[in-house]
Amino acid sequence: MEFIVLGSGSSAPHPKRSQSGFWLECENGTILLDCSASSNHRMAQENLVWANLDAIWISHFHLDHCGGLFPFLAAMKHAPETQDRTKTLKIFGAKGLRELIEKFDKYELLKQPFPVEIIEIEPFDEFEILPDVQASVLKTPHTENSFAIRIVEREKTFVYSSDTGFCKPLTTFAKGADLFVLECSIFKNKPTEKHLELSEAMFLIYRAKPKKAVLTHFYAEWDAVDFKTEVEKFAPLCEIIEAVDGLRLDLSEPSAVADG
Asked: How far apart (Å, rounded) are the C-alpha atoms in residues 103 and 67?
C-alpha cells in the first residue's frame, strides 16, 4: 500500500500547496481520495496511471474536495488513454452524490467508454471499495454529508479524516491504523468548530495510537510555523509527518518517508 499526497492545502490558492487530493495504491487497484480542481494536473505531475484508476472516494461536497471530479470525468470520456478501457470506475460518496454529478448531465459525464458506478454511502456502512479491500465510514462534524473513511487491505489499515471538527469517535475509528491522515487546517485559536487546530489533532492522534500520522489541509498561517518544533511540544507517541504536495509513503516500509 502506497500513499501519495496530491494536494496538502485548503480551498485558498497557495503557491506550494494544491487543494485536497490523495492517491492510495493497493495491491488490487488504486483509489483517488477526494478530487479537487488541482488533482487532475497533480496526478499527471506524479506520473500516476490516472486512466486506469479503479475507485474515487468523495469525502464531502465542498468544491476543494470534489470540484475536479467533473472535469476529470470529462477528460476520461475523451482521452485516448481511456478509449479501450473496459473495467468499471466506481465513485463512492454520501447520499446526494449522484444528484450532484447529474447536475452536469449536459456533458453526459456518465456515458463513458467504460461503465461508471455511483455508490452512495450511509453512516456506519461497510463496503468493498476494491476487490478484497474493505472500507467503513464515520460521520464527522463538518457538513451534513462529510465522512471519514477507514480502508483495510490484508494487514494494512489506512484512515483519512478529511475535513472535520473535533470528533472523539475518530480516536476509536483510527485505532492502531498504519497511517492516520488527519486534517489540521489551523495552527491555534481556530475561528470555527468545523476544522481542527494542532492541539486537537494531536489529542486525537494520541488517543488513536496509529503507527504513523500525516497532518494536512493547511491554511496559509502554517507558512510561518515551524511544524516539527510545534509538534514535538506534544511529545508524540508516533511519527507525525507534515503533508506536502508530492509526499510518498510506502506502508510496507514503516520508516520510509520520501518527498516527491
From this structure: 13
HEC string of 44-58?
HHCCCCHHHCCEEEC
Task: Output the CA torsion sign for 27, 61, 225, 176.
Answer: negative
pLDDT of residue 140: 98
Q: What whole-number distance in Å separates Cα of residue 139 and Cα of residue 143?
A: 9
- Count of Cβ atoms closer than 10 Å to residue 32 Cβ: 26
CA distance 42 to 133: 25
Q: The domain 2-251 belongs to what CATH superfamily?
A: Ribonuclease Z/Hydroxyacylglutathione hydrolase-like (3.60.15.10)
Query: What are the residue ranges spanned by the domains of the chain?
Result: 2-251
Query: Do residues 161 and 64 make contact, with C-beta atoms less than 8 angstroms apart?
Result: no
Question: Tens of pLDDT along 101-125?
Answer: 998 878 899 999 999 999 999 999 9
**How far apart are the C-alpha atoms of 193 and 201, rounded to whole Å?**
13
- Return the residue matching grid coordinates 500525516: 214
Q: Give 122's contacts (C-beta < 8 A, 6+ positions apart).
A: 95
Which residue from 35, 132, 31, 15 is spatially nearest to 75, judged by alpha carbons?
A: 35
pTM confidence score: 0.95
pLDDT tens, position by position, 222-250: 999 999 999 999 999 999 999 999 999 99
CA dihedral 58, 225, 230, 252 (to 10 degrees): 40
Distance CA 11, CA 65 (A): 9
Mode of pairing for the β-strands spanning 55-57 and 29-35: parallel
